[in-house]
Specification:
Dihydrofolate Reductase, subunit A; 8-stranded mixed β-sheet; 20% helix; globular
Length: 182
């Protein structure tokens, strides 16, 4: 199973403001480039999303009656949660709830036929990093300091080494760093 994290981060290392909002990720000027997000969705079989992130996305980008404005297309979404989940009608065929340790979650996705998964959500991504289960980590650094907020990286028991695979600079000042597991 190939596990990928793809996340935007402020220059001072935050993936969200303290209240969970991510408005700082938006460029100051219109920018017509998804910085590899569509390509990422095209190469993963599934997306594993934390519950808080799912709730945030549902509130921020509510799917219309057809699900047309859903940002993840037809990618199957597995939401890690222990609580009941209310999924809007057009997304019910795409969303499945799962629970367990990071390895349990990967085993369940593999049983469902996935070979590559995009893990989304700060707490869930950190659990996968701490468990040593991340194969690829892409950080898109936004040239903005926000002072405080939610970090992707927290305590881990041992060093985890990654090797730089690529660097991409964008005209809006964003820099994307992609690392593979060393």
């Amino acid at each position: 199973m190939n596990v990928v994290i793809f996340v935007g981060v402020s220059l001072d290392g935050f993936i969200a403001r303290a209240d969970g909002t991510v408005d700082f990720l938006e460029p100051d000027e219109p920018f017509d480039d998804d910085m590899g997000f569509s390509a990422l969705l095209g190469r993963v079989d599934a997306m594993l999303m934390g519950r808080s992130t799912f709730d945030f996305v549902i509130d921020a980008v509510p799917a219309d009656a057809t699900g047309a404005n859903w940002p993840y297309g037809e990618t199957p979404i597995f939401v890690a949660t222990h609580r009941p989940l209310d999924v809007p009608g057009p997304l019910r065929s795409l969303v499945t709830t799962v629970a367990g340790s990071p390895q349990d979650l990967l085993d369940e996705l593999e049983a469902a036929g996935a070979t590559s998964v995009y893990v989304d959500g700060g707490a869930l991504a950190h659990q996968f990093l701490a468990a040593g289960l991340v194969d690829e980590l892409t950080l898109t650094v936004v040239p903005r300091l926000i002072g405080e907020g939610v970090t992707l990286f927290g305590p881990i028991e041992a060093d985890i080494s990654f090797a730089l695979q690529s660097t991409t600079s964008y005209p809006n000042g964003y820099v994307q760093l992609t690392y593979g597991r060393a």
